[in-house]
Please model this.
Amino acid sequence: MKTRKQGYERDLPRRLYTFFTGYDDEKSAPSLQKFARANGFTTEELLAFQKNEDFARAIRECSEIRRDYLIDRALTKRFDASFVKYLLDGESNKCTEDSSLSVTLEVLS
Model:
């Protein structure tokens, strides 16, 4: 799908929230990538819009909606519970660009 370069739109947080709350596909879960494709954006463009606090707040809320959606589908056995756990663990363990890891090794002979 070809996307066109778009700027930030004032109603974008509401559209994102509405997309996630209204999502009802039995075979998949809502995602930022699906919203981007449906609205002519790239995921990178949407992530760049996080400098707008309203949009950043909407992304955080939609992340929680997606989490709840996945858990509900796992509990009703529509999605594989082990895979949902894997997805949720991966999301909660993501490192941010600001975080750093320091490792010190000492070799004993």
Remarks:
- The radius of gyration is 18 Å.
